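[Discussion] Sanity-checking designs against the backbone

I'm trying to build intuition for which residues belong where. Below is a structure token string of 128 positions. I'd appreciate it if someone posts a full sequence so I can compare it with mine line by line.
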């Protein structure tokens, strides 16, 4: 049986085109009261392949020749949270619990926004 690398790569590429699309990664939206919710999913994939051939006439090992090849892959899908909208407000609700340093990094955008708002207020008061 011959291993056709080009055909295998084409089949894998076609598979990726059909599986790694927005509906697969983000999911279908749904209504929950006055909220519209969209699940967000982490999608990962790994692929590997290899092959070789040999011709031998080694002392004590005999004579022969051979070929071999193989390919493998894996795929994972993990829910990470929900995008929610209500009116003109958009929020992200994580399904992961945040502890330690990662919790601090998640708060940085809110802290920056508050700091910038405070500076604007101070500047406006100083100019008045």
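Best answer:
Here's mine. Compare freely.
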């Amino acid at each position: 049986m011959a291993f056709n690398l080009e055909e295998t790569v084409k089949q894998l590429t076609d598979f990726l085109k059909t599986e790694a699309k927005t509906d697969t990664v983000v999911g279908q939206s749904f209504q929950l009261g006055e909220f519209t919710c969209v699940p967000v999913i982490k999608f990962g994939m790994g692929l590997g392949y290899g092959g070789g051939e040999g011709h031998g006439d080694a002392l004590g090992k005999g004579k022969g020749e051979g070929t071999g090849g193989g390919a493998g892959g894996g795929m994972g899908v993990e829910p990470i949270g929900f995008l929610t909208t209500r009116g003109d407000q958009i929020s992200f609700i994580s399904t992961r619990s945040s502890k330690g340093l990662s919790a601090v990094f998640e708060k940085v955008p809110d802290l920056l926004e508050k700091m910038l708002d405070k500076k604007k207020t101070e500047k406006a008061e100083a100019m008045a």
